[in-house]
Specification:
The protein has 187 residues and is α/β, with parallel strands linked by helices. It contains eight helices and seven strands. Helix 7 links the parallel strand 4 and strand 5. The longest helix has 14 residues. The structure holds S-adenosylmethionine (SAM).
Length: 187
């Protein structure tokens, strides 16, 4: 709440996501062959326990969080998980520096629409450059597809990553949220 009052646009919501959002991000995916995964906008780690818990042994998991206060809380809550205090716009450089040049999935709880356009573009281009063909980009949003803003956001993500593979309502989250996934196109 303190961080939300300080920078509402960067947080997007004062409420942490529920584990149901993480489960919707993972639903139906075969994670058994995954080697490296990134979570963007990890906050204090509301999704990170479920996401990292679904990964096979040996799969790398890296959380990226821009707020120093939230990254510090993340470390306190999740001492065994790797978190970088950094900007999702730099995801390409961050992952290469960490020896993760290829990703099987990117999970994003970033408040995409309220971020500056340049940040959105750099983050999406960076994620597209890291994802293996067929890799997954999952985004949680409070904008339904029925609204123009929601459609524009999905179009932007899809243009960078690939076609939308699923889009489902998580009604039990506060507030209700949608999780959509795009699969990285070949080439
Ligand atoms: C809606 S909150 C989600 C927090 C948590 N993952 C959850 O699900 O409850 C969005 C998070 O994105 C972070 N964030 C915003 N802009 C960012 C950026 N450019 N790079 C990295 N993190 C960012 C915020 O600080 C905040 O922790």
């Amino acid at each position: 709440m303190r961080e939300f009052l300080r920078s509402p646009r960067e947080l997007g919501t004062a409420f942490p996501c529920s584990p149901a959002v993480a489960r919707a991000m993972l639903r139906g995916l075969d994670t058994s062959g995954w080697r490296a995964v990134v979570e963007l906008g990890a906050g204090t780690g509301a999704l990170s326990g479920v996401l990292s818990g679904a990964l096979p042994k040996g799969c790398r998991f890296l959380a990226v969080e821009r707020s120093p206060a939230l990254a510090a809380e993340f470390r306190a809550h999740w001492p065994d998980l790797d978190v970088v205090e950094g900007d999702a716009a730099d995801v390409g450089a961050i992952c290469r520096m960490r020896g993760m040049p290829r990703l099987d999935a990117v999970f994003s709880a970033l408040p995409l629409r309220s971020l500056p356009e340049a940040v959105q573009e750099r983050m999406l281009a960076g994620a597209a450059g890291l994802l293996a063909p067929g890799g997954v980009f999952a985004q949680v949003t409070y904008w339904p597809r029925a609204l123009v803003a929601g459609r524009e956001m999905r179009r932007r993500v899809s243009e960078h990553i690939g076609p939308i593979e699923s889009d489902r309502l998580v009604a039990g989250n506060t507030p209700p949220a949608w999780v959509f996934r795009c699969l990285k196109a070949e080439g």
